[in-house]
Amino acid sequence: MTDWSTLTDACGSAEHVPALLDRFEADPSGVWSELMDHLCPQLDLAFTASFAALPRLAEIATAGRPGTLGWVLLAAGAIASCSPGLSDPGSPLTVFSAPIAVLHDLTDRRLSQTAGAEEYVNLLQALLSFEGVEIWDRSLDGLQSGEYEVDCPYCGVNIFVVIGQDDSFCCTDDYALQDVLKSPLQPARTQQLEGLPRRLFSRALADGQEGLAHGVRYLFGRAACPDCGTDFSVAERVAGWIL
Length: 243
Ligand SMILES: [Zn+2]
Description:
alpha+beta
């Protein structure tokens, strides 16, 4: 049995966490914010109690009441994304590998049944979090919002990388407010994609998310700085911005 009194969450002692999880199970959308305030504030920080909550979250997810599963997987995914990586001795991803495998499996299945791009991207990030994939488990939102912000590796200017269905480009000024100088993007060719980018592309396509698959080619493609012309890898700059 977990001795919750020895664990902490964002507010101190975690003794109240089992009761909070009970309330979350009963009303996931209503209690989501409160749960995250305690276990994963800003979806960016986790505590001993956060990881200790994963077995219970896996149980709640397995019970699979309609309307519950999405919330539970996102909560667990956010917590897992804050875990030290698999190479870290004693990583919660290893300690809690059994419930994480259950959560991964449920996320994998739900992905294939999810049509909405926003939920799809959130679930895809959760899937990567459960696998211990770093950086990309929290950097795919731009595929859905259509924008990444990076800096030029040479002159340092702030650059918007805009990945749209009709128009993709990069620019240094706010393109929503004014006409701007647009510099074209070079999407990766499908056959050039390898490793994780290849997997993200194929998965999105297989799940009917053509728009996201299209975006993956741009995210893992190249751009040129509109100010100084320096050619750079979009993904490398996105990863550098996140770290
Ligand atoms: Zn530049």
